[in-house]
Amino acid sequence: MHTVLITGAAKRIGEDLAHHFAQRGWEVIIHCNNSRGDADRLSTHLRNLFEDRQFPVIAADFSDPVSASDAIFSELRILNLCPEVLINSASVFNPGLLADTSYTHLRRQMAVNFEAPFMLMKAFRQYCKKGCIVNILDTRVTSNDSRHAAYTLSKKVLMHLTEMAGLEWAPEIRVNAVAPGAVLPPPGQDETYLKDVVAGTPLKQAVSPGDLADAVWFLVNNGTITGQIIYCDGGAHLGK
């Protein structure tokens, strides 16, 4: 049976990805941090739908990337699971101009959005030896808009890591990314925010969680692609 490890799988995009892979016959390893209750409910729900699988939950705090990576792969060894695919979906998204970005704020964004994926990618390569990695970026990587400066910088670095690892780790490990536009309103915002963002894109069409999951699924299943970034953003990156 195919197995995928999805970080941040308890909520939002990660949860949709978990459903997408589960519906296609995969075992899904659900990572969470503060959303353990949501993760357990998702695991129970998926087990009720697909009784041939376990959908294990692994909790780890990405603010300490090394400890989190060690904890996740130690648990995988205990469970005797070796995922074929790693999807780095977990992230933190906070506003702040460059001039307003404190060191603490910068460290938090970098730790969760870049350093934890980096350590997980290295552990995946060492433990699993071969497979596929998909990093979830953001269409902001093509922009120098600094309203979410630390967040955007962390995703830009993850973008370059995707390309470097795609080159260095071939042919055993393929590494790609999807850079979504507005899929869901950020915490504290409503559908009005989403409509305003969509109105400024060439296609003027919202990106659904299913659209994003289809892009990830394509990268997982096309064995001739590595080091690529799919902008699933209604064309938003074209105007940046």
UniProtKB/TrEMBL annotation:
Q: Which InterPro entries match?
A: NAD(P)-bd_dom_sf, SDR_fam
Q: Which Pfam families match?
A: adh_short_C2
Q: Which UniProt keywords apply?
A: Oxidoreductase
Q: Name one GO molecular function term.
A: oxidoreductase activity
- UniProt keyword Oxidoreductase present: yes
What's this protein's family per the entry? Answer: Belongs to the short-chain dehydrogenases/reductases (SDR) family.
**Which named protein is this?**
SDR family oxidoreductase
Q: Tell me what organism the protein belongs to.
A: Xiashengella succiniciproducens
Lineage runs: Bacteria, Pseudomonadati, Bacteroidota, Bacteroidia, Marinilabiliales
